[in-house]
Amino acid sequence: AGGAGAELIKNYFGSDEFSFSIETATNPGKARHFTSLSGAARENSISRIYVGYHFRKACMDGEALGNKIGDWVAANALKAK
Fold it and tell me: Fewer Cβ within 10 Å of end Cβ, the chain: N or C?
C-alpha cells in the first residue's frame, strides 16, 4: 500500500521530492522526517521486517508491485474525462 500510494502521488505531482514529517499514533512525539515519497515508502516496507511480519524479499516484491499498481491507477483512473 505504501508503494502504491507513493507512486500515485509521484505521478500526480510529477516529482518524488517532497520534504515532510509525520508522527504516528504508535510513536507519539517522535516525528519521522522524509525528503522523498519513495524514501517514506521504503521505510514503510522495511518496518515490516523490523516488527517480524515479513522477510526482506517479500517487502521489496510488495513495494515493486505497489509501484506498478500506483502507475496503473495514475494512467487509467486519473485520466481527465
Answer: C
